[in-house]
């Protein structure tokens, strides 16, 4: 409970600071730009968000239905929406998966199975993220949206390498048992050295068991490649729809000089970097990244208005929908006859 309150406090303070520094220099100009927004296109951006989350839910359903044959898309979508809220209020989006595992347990999936399928779903997402990142970097060699800005280029490289490292560590532990065990032990020793984990003996004792669980996940991926390929495809569509939202919002401000390709490349870089900002929602850093990568696309007052609406749609509105879903949904059934709450 204390952690949740602290996260919400950090998020609230960060939001206030973002709004202050965004609006302080040209409040009236930004408000004037926001007043001109095409509401229909703004609604299209909202529909893109819901559609992108639908494909994310489809990815989750791909793995869950291996354990519950008649598992419905509705249940998967509900869990995905709730995950948006929990991820939004926790650093590194770290709270969503444990809570989703809890919900899956209530729907009739064993904790061990739900943990495994959530990890496979995360691996599929990470692969999709890396693929989009590679494509964006290759495209940027021609369109050069960073205009030779060394600082931004280093940020892109850093964000890409961190995401790639996460994927490589996961795949190594899943498919190379001996190497994975050594790697996991080194990580535990590192955490112990910096007092990040207190009960070292217990943690080290459980490393082998955890690696065996990851190895089991690797075996399941090998045995069911079709599901993994489908999940990667769904996550690719999820990211494409999500990355279309800034372009649509620019259009809602009647900015016609922005190309869909440049917009999608720019936002992919923003998201690569934002994934590892240790504040709920990456608040502060992700807004700064948006303004930096898109600053050549429109005048300052328009750009800040676009950024505020983009964050509202993709973060605050997504969290609000997740919160409402968590509050209002009283009956998510297990095999059509058991409720969660």
Summarize the structure.
The chain is mainly α and 341 residues long. It has one domain. It is 78% helix and 0% strand.
Can you give a write-up of this model?
The structure is a single chain. This protein is mostly helical and 341 residues long. The protein has one domain. The chain is 78% helix and 0% strand. The chain has 13 helices and no strands. The longest helix is centred in the middle third of the chain and has 33 residues, at 111-143. The radius of gyration is 21 Å and the shape is globular. Residues 194-201 and 331-341 have low confidence and may be disordered.
Main β sheet profile: none
Structural class: mainly alpha
Mean pLDDT over all positions: 80
| Tally of domains | 1
Gyration radius, in Å? 21 Å
| Percent range of helical residues | over 70%
Order of helices and strands: HHHHHHHHHHHHH
Q: Given the structure, what is the number of helices?
A: 13
Structure summary, number of beta strands: 0
Note the beta-strand portion: under 5%
N→C terminal distance: 19 Å
Runs in which pLDDT lies below 50 for 5 or more consecutive residues are 194-201, 331-341
Shape: globular
């Amino acid at each position: 409970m204390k952690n949740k309150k602290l996260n919400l406090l950090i998020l609230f303070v960060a939001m206030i600071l973002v709004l202050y520094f965004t609006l302080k220099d040209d409040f009236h100009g930004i408000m004037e730009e926001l007043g001109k927004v095409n509401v229909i296109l703004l609604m299209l951006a909202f529909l893109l968000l819901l559609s992108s989350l639908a494909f994310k839910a489809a990815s989750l359903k791909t793995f869950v239905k291996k354990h519950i044959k008649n598992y419905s898309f509705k249940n998967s979508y509900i869990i995905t929406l709730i995950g948006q809220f929990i991820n939004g209020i926790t650093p590194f989006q770290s709270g969503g998966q444990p809570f989703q595992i809890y919900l899956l347990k209530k729907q009739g999936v064993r904790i061990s199975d739900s943990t495994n399928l959530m990890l496979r779903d995360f691996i599929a997402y990470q692969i999709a993220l890396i693929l989009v990142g590679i494509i964006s970097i290759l495209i940027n060699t021609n369109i050069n949206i960073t205009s030779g800005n060394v600082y931004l280029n280093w940020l892109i490289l850093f964000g890409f390498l961190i995401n790639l490292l996460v994927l490589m560590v996961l795949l190594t532990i899943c498919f190379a048992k001996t190497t994975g065990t050594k790697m996991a032990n080194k990580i535990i020793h590192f955490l112990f050295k910096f007092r990040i984990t207190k009960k070292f003996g217990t943690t080290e004792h459980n490393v082998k068991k955890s690696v065996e669980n990851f190895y089991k996940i690797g075996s399941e991926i090998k045995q069911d490649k079709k599901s993994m390929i489908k999940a990667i495809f769904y996550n690719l569509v999820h990211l494409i729809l999500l990355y279309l939202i800034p372009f649509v919002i620019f259009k809602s401000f009647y900015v016609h000089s922005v190309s869909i390709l440049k917009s999608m490349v720019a936002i992919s870089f923003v998201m690569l970097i934002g994934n590892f900002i240790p504040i709920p929602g990456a608040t502060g850093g992700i807004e700064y990244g948006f303004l930096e990568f898109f600053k050549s696309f429109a005048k300052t007052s328009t750009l800040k208005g676009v950024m505020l609406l983009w964050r509202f749609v993709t973060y605050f509105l997504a969290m609000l929908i997740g919160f409402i879903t968590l509050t209002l949904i009283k009956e998510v059934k297990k095999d059509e006859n058991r409720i969660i709450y």
